[in-house]
Each structure stands twice: as structure tokens, then as C-alpha cells.
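Late entry, evening session. Most of the bench is empty. Finally got around to the prediction I had been postponing all week. Sequence below, unchanged from the version circulated by S.P.
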Amino acid sequence: MKLKVFLATKNENKVKEIRRIITDSRIEILPCPGNITLPEETGKSFEENAYIKASFLSKSLKGEIVAGEDSGLCVEKLGGLPGIYSARFSGKDDRENIRKLLKLMLPYRRIEERKAKFITVICLITEREKRFFKGEVEGIISFTPRGNYGFGYDPVFEIPEGRTFAEMEPEEKNRISHRAIAFRKLERYLIDFYLQS
């Protein structure tokens, strides 16, 4: 039996990363169909945004299993920003988002002032239920971008061992990342309650 899960995202990098995380060959991860335009993220939390996307896609793909996901970087000294605005923090691209973040972090030179965490929330919607899964990883904001892997804020998110996410090969990052933690919880749940029944 093959379990199809449609992701409420058009972000190809996310789809590729999630396919690497979900290792059970019975689960097929599919992107949002090209003819569907997802709604704006108007929620006030990761949970709300994940639900908005999942709910919309679920109505468009009646009877299918869908998962909406929202992720972001929350910096302690910035009151949780960029948070739910992570992808559109600068109004431009990843490079400009990082530039804006590092500029805001200039007053904070001590490591303990640069604490941050990456958060992922998934909203799973099926004909049976709606359920949330969450993953978090703590780290700090580095002083300069480092590394050639990953996307988004990966070049400036440094884990306690001293490397940024962008300095890790995808396979390594996918063992410890916030997205990996959340999607492994989802995978385990799908195996236990949808593939064993």
C-alpha cells in the first residue's frame, strides 16, 4: 500500500528536503499541484499558518491526505522575530533576509545575546482528523553567513557544536533539524495509524 501525502507548498527546496527526511518507501510525498494557488499566510502563529495552507489544500483535493507546514527562525533578542515572517522578512529573497537579520543583531556581540531557535509546525488533515506536529532546534545567530548547503537562514543558524546548518551536508542536517524532528513525528504517526491499520 502506498500512502500519498500532498504538501501545501510550492517551495521545491522544502519538498526535496522532506522527501529525504521521510524514509519509509510506503509514504509518497507530493507537492501542491501546479493548478492550485495557495492562500496567503495570514495567521498569527506557525500553527495557524500551517492550518490555513493545509485546510485550503484539503478542500481542493477532497479525500486526499494533506500536510501544511510553517517554519521560521525565532531570535530571542528580537522578541521572536522574524518568526512567522521569516520567508518575507525583507520583502525580497533569502540573501536580503539574512542581511536584514544580521544588521538587527549588530548590537548583540555576546554569544548569549544571540540565542535563536528554528521551529517547524505541521498540520495534517485527513478525512478522519486534523493533527499537529512540532519540531524545534536551539542555536545562535552567527556573525557572518557560513556554508554552501541548505537555504533560507541556514548560513547564519549555528548549532552548539559550532557549525551552521549550511555547513552540514543535507543528510546530516536532516538528522537533527527542526523540520526533520517534526516530519519524523508525522512519519511515525502515519505508519502507526494509517499503514498498520
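Two things to note before I forget:
The two ends are 11 Å apart (CA to CA).
The helical segments are 12-21, 46-60, 94-104, 170-176, 178-195.
Will write this up properly tomorrow.
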